[in-house]
UniProtKB/TrEMBL annotation:
GO terms, molecular function: symporter activity
Keyword Nucleus tagged: no
SUPFAM superfamilies given in the database record: MFS general substrate transporter
Lineage, opening ranks: Bacteria, Pseudomonadati, Pseudomonadota, Gammaproteobacteria, Vibrionales
Chain ranges passing through the membrane: 16-39, 59-78, 85-106, 112-136, 143-164, 176-194, 232-252, 272-293, 300-318, 324-350, 362-384, 390-411
Protein name: MFS transporter
Length: 430
């Protein structure tokens, strides 16, 4: 067996470049995930055969694809290498997004969102497990949180781009098409930049050795191991927590443009501005919560979900015509809401840390594994909306966020110096 070198032998410049390449892919992982939510009211207006209920199903098809992509790519990565799998699914993300706009029927859109979903679910799983192996664990919370903040960058760019398209009376289809080319470029760059996990031992993944001290092939993980012994409770809790996250997100974020357009009666330009400013809260929040997670522990971030629940409640009762420092009050409330929600930016690394090194990819996959629970959220909301109204249905969001925050607090702390880690040790010795 060929001896592998350790990641600390890879030049810092190459590791930083690899991280940046993954970030570019991450931006368009985020963009292509949420663009379907933003263009939802425009799809309904553009295609007579597609209804609001159909657009909710697009999210379900995309979520089903993400679930399959996350679970399968964790297995593929352990067999064929994380680098190879990441390049492949990044390219699929870009190509499928471009092809999506060649379809005008419900069936065509559903099929393409399913394929895009496979690539997106796989991307998160493999990208996170690769990313956290590039550097030491002392900066892991910041690294994964900063990557997650690319969601905010993507949404802010989306909102600004949508406002621009509206101002020049350009087609909304441009919002879909802009998500396709950058992932293809990122995939090509990854071929030359990413260290191969078949040749390099990542931080936290020490080489396995036999009794004579010779390196042997590292243990390969499996889903069966994730559902045995101590891992079982943690796996199920992570899946439920992730599922609640998707319900809370869809009950608010997934229909907020529809809410602003149909309930608050805002025009496209105002919607874009509110959307973009609100998203800045996620960007700032990811950086702040990442630093908090590295200093005081991953579980402290659970309080961000409770903050998000409170802000979502206030958003629904706040007046439409009140401004503060030139900004609409709803934009400010949305900013604070997204700031709290950004506490989950550490989940990729945190879910990985909850399990042994050879199960890292499987741990990261649990984030999208929660789609098994959360994929029905849009249809549940539409079901409630059809029997009441949209605003009543969206009130499910703050309830879900508070419940999710409490569930998060039931998981173990993985940072040894964390506040909750000290409490858990004290309870264990009591």
């Amino acid at each position: 067996m060929t001896t592998k070198k350790h990641m600390n032998e890879v030049p810092m410049v190459q590791r930083a470049a690899a991280y940046l390449a993954i970030l570019v892919g991450y931006v368009f992982y985020c963009y292509n995930f949420v663009v379907i939510d933003y263009v939802r009211p425009y799809i309904v207006d553009a295609y007579d055969s597609i209804t609001l209920a159909h657009t909710a199903q697009f999210y379900t098809w995309q979520s089903l694809g993400a679930l399959i992509g996350a679970l399968s790519c964790a297995w593929f990565a352990s067999r064929f290498g994380k680098k190879n799998v990441l390049i492949t699914i990044t390219a699929i993300n870009g190509a499928a997004t471009i092809l999506n706009m060649t379809f005008t029927s419900y069936e065509g859109w559903a099929a393409m969102r399913f394929i895009v979903g496979i690539a997106l679910g796989g991307y998160f799983t493999v990208a996170v497990s690769l990313m956290i192996g590039l550097f030491t664990d002392s900066v892991r919370g910041k690294l994964t949180a900063f990557a997650s903040s690319m969601f905010s960058v993507a949404v802010m760019a989306m909102g600004a781009y949508a406002a621009y398209l509206s101002s020049v009376n350009a087609s909304w289809e441009n919002m879909m098409l802009v998500g396709g080319i950058p992932p293809l470029v990122a995939a090509a760059a990854m071929v030359f930049i990413l260290p191969s996990d078949k040749k390099v031992i990542a931080f936290g993944e020490e080489a396995a050795k036999d009794d004579s001290g010779k390196e042997v092939e590292a243990k390969k993980g499996s889903w069966g191991e994730m559902f045995r012994g101590r891992n079982l409770r943690i796996t199920l809790t992570c899946l439920l927590l992730s599922g609640l996250n998707f319900y809370g997100f869809q009950f608010f974020n997934g229909f907020v443009t529809t809410y602003l357009k149909e309930v608050r009666m805002f025009d496209g330009q105002t919607m874009g501005i509110i959307f973009s400013i609100s998203a800045f809260g996620s960007l700032l929040g990811a950086w702040v919560w990442g630093a908090i997670a590295d200093k005081w522990g991953r579980k402290v971030n659970a309080f961000g979900f409770i903050l998000a629940g409170i802000m979502a409640s206030v958003f629904f009762v706040a007046p439409s015509d009140v401004s503060f420092m030139g900004l609409n009050l709803l934009a400010i409330l949305g900013l604070i809401y997204n700031f709290g929600l950004a506490s989950s930016a550490v989940w990729g690394g945190y879910f990985s840390e909850l399990f042994p090194a050879h199960l890292r990819s499987f741990g990261a996959a649990l984030f999208h594994g929660g789609r098994l629970i959360g994929m029905w959220a849009p249809m549940v909301l539409v079901f409630i909306q059809e029997r009441s109204d949209l605003q009543t249905a969206m009130w499910g969001s703050p309830i879900v966020w508070v419940l999710a925050g409490l569930l998060w607090l039931s998981l173990p702390e993985t940072l040894k110096k964390g506040v909750f880690s000290k409490k858990e040790k004290a309870q264990a010795t009591a």
